[in-house]
UniProtKB/TrEMBL annotation:
Key words of the record: Cell membrane, Membrane, Signal, Transmembrane, Transmembrane helix
Main location (coarse class): membrane
Membrane topology of the entry: Multi-pass membrane protein
Pfam families reported in the protein's UniProt record: MFS_1
InterPro entries according to UniProt: MFS (IPR011701), MFS_dom (IPR020846), MFS_Efflux_Transporters (IPR050189), MFS_trans_sf (IPR036259)
Alphabetical list of Gene3D superfamilies matching this protein: MFS general substrate transporter like domains
Signal sequence bounds: 1-29
Domain of life: Bacteria
Residue ranges of coiled coil: none
Lineage: Bacteria, Pseudomonadati, Pseudomonadota, Betaproteobacteria, Burkholderiales
Domain Major facilitator superfamily (MFS) profile residue range list: 13-393
Subcellular location per the Swiss-Prot or TrEMBL entry: Cell membrane
Protein name: MFS transporter
Organism: Orrella daihaiensis
Length: 396
C-alpha cells in the first residue's frame, strides 16, 4: 500500500491513539490486585471474584464483531473517539453498584465500549503506514497499551489499599472522559480512508476474513496466546499475595513490571525486527514466556518475581508484535474488520483463560494456572514460528 506524504499519520496522531489505548488497557488490569478484597466484601471465592475480569474481557471480545464493520463504514478514528467517551458510563455504574452483580454489569458495559479503541487504532495505522514501517509504528502506539496495563495494576493496587477498590472505577471514568473529549476535538484534523458507500454490512466482511487460510491461523494463535498469557497473569497478584504474604499494592506493583519488559521491546523494536526477523522473534517469545512463569513458581524470594514480570512483558511482545503486524495485513480490503476480529479472538481467549483459571484455582490450586502457562507457551511460540515459514503458501 502506498501513501502520499499528506496522508501519513503525524506523531501527534499516534500520541492521541496511544493515550486512548492507555485508558483502555488500564481497565483490563485495574482489578487484578483487588480480587482477594472483592472476595471478602461480597463473600465469594477468589475464582468467582475473577468474573470482574471475565465479564469485561468477554464483552470486549464479542463487540469486535460489531466495531470492525462500523469502523470500515463510518471511519475508524471517529468510531473509536465516540466509544472512548462512552466508556466513562460503564465505570460510573460499577463504582456506584451496591451488589456484585451490579459491578459485573458495569464491567460488561465498559468492556463493550472500550472494545473499539485498540483494534480500530491498529487498523487506522494500517491504513496509513506501509507494511515495512508498520511494526515500528505499532510499537510506538503500543507504548500506550503497555503503560496503561502497568498503570492499571499499580493504581488498582494502591487505591484498593487506601481509598477502596471503587475509586479505581472513578479514576477510569475521569480518564475516559478526558481522553474521549480530546479525541473528538481532532476529528477534522486526522486523515481517514473514505468510508464504504455500500451501507453497513456486519456479516459479509467477517466471512471474507474467515475465508483466508492465513487469517484463520493468526486468529487461532492469538486466541490461544490470550488464554495462556493473561489467563496466568491475571492470577499472579493473588498468587504473590498468597505465597509471599504481600499487600495488594506490592503485588500489583511487581506484576506491573510486565510493562517495563514490554517497553524494552518497544525501544529496541526496529533493531530486533531487522536483526532476528519474525520467525526467530516468535520462537524466542514462547520460550521466554514459559521461563518467566516457571520463575514465578520456583523463585526463592519475592524479588525474583520482578525479573519474571519484566521478561514476561518482553517475551509477550516478541510473540504478540509479530501477530498483530500480520493481523493488519491479512485482509487489507476490510482492515477494520480483520483487526477487530484479531482483537476479538485475543480477548475472548483472555476471557476463556481467566474463566478456566478460576475453575483451576477453586479446585486444585492457584499454582496450577501458572504451571499450565509455563508448559504450553513454548509450544505455541514454536508452532507459530513454523506456520510463519509457510505463510506464502497460505496467502492468496
Amino acid at each position: 500500500m502506498t501513501h502520499t506524504a499528506a496522508h501519513l499519520p503525524s506523531k501527534r496522531s499516534i500520541l492521541l491513539l496511544a493515550c486512548a489505548a492507555f485508558s483502555s488497557t488500564s481497565a483490563f488490569r485495574v482489578l487484578d490486585p483487588a480480587l482477594p478484597q472483592l472476595s471478602q466484601e461480597f463473600s465469594i471465592t477468589t475464582g468467582e471474584a475473577a468474573k470482574v475480569i471475565t465479564w469485561f474481557v468477554f464483552a470486549y471480545g464479542v463487540m469486535q464483531f460489531f466495531y470492525g464493520p462500523v469502523g470500515d463504514r463510518f471511519g475508524k478514528f471517529r468510531t473509536l473517539a465516540f466509544a472512548t467517551l462512552a466508556c466513562a458510563i460503564g465505570n460510573l455504574v460499577a463504582a456506584s453498584a451496591s451488589s456484585f452483580e451490579g459491578v459485573l454489569a458495569g464491567r460488561a458495559m465498559s468492556g463493550a465500549t472500550a472494545a473499539a479503541i485498540v483494534p480500530l487504532s491498529m487498523a487506522w495505522i494500517g491504513d496509513h503506514v506501509a507494511y515495512e514501517d508498520r511494526q515500528v509504528t505499532l510499537a510506538q502506539f503500543m507504548t500506550g497499551t503497555i503503560l496503561g496495563m502497568s498503570a492499571g495494576l499499580v493504581i488498582g493496587g494502591a487505591l484498593t489499599d487506601t481509598l477502596g477498590w471503587r475509586w479505581s472505577f472513578l479514576f477510569l471514568a475521569a480518564m475516559y472522559g478526558i481522553v474521549g473529549i480530546w479525541l473528538l476535538t481532532q476529528l477534522n484534523d486526522v486523515p481517514e480512508v473514505p468510508p464504504s458507500t455500500q451501507g453497513l454490512q456486519l456479516v459479509a466482511p467477517i466471512v471474507s476474513v474467515f475465508a483466508l487460510p492465513w487469517a484463520r491461523i493468526v486468529l487461532l494463535v492469538v486466541l490461544i496466546e490470550g488464554a495462556l498469557v493473561f489467563g496466568g497473569l491475571s492470577f499472579v497478584p493473588a498468587f504473590l499475595q498468597k505465597t509471599q504474604d504481600m499487600s495488594s499494592t506490592m503485588a500489583g506493583l511487581i506484576t506491573a513490571f510486565f510493562g517495563l519488559g514490554a517497553m524494552l521491546y518497544v525501544l529496541r523494536a526496529k533493531w530486533l525486527v531487522s536483526r532476528f526477523g519474525e520467525l526467530k522473534l516468535t520462537f524466542a517469545g514462547g520460550w521466554v514466556l514459559g521461563a518467566c512463569y516457571l520463575l514465578y513458581l520456583i523463585g526463592p524470594h519475592w524479588s525474583w518475581a520482578i525479573f519474571a514480570s519484566v521478561f514476561c512483558g518482553l517475551g509477550y511482545y516478541l510473540l504478540h508484535a509479530v501477530l498483530q503486524t500480520n493481523a493488519t495485513q491479512m485482509a487489507p480490503q476490510v482492515r477494520g474488520t480483520a483487526v477487530s476480529l484479531f482483537a476479538s479472538f485475543l480477548f475472548l481467549g483472555q476471557a476463556l483463560g481467566v474463566a478456566a483459571g478460576a475453575l483451576v484455582v477453586d479446585t486444585v490450586g492457584i499454582q496450577w494456572v501458572l504451571i499450565g502457562a509455563c508448559a504450553a507457551l513454548p509450544i505455541l511460540g514454536m508452532a507459530f514460528s513454523c506456520a510463519l515459514s509457510k505463510r506464502d503458501e497460505l496467502t492468496p
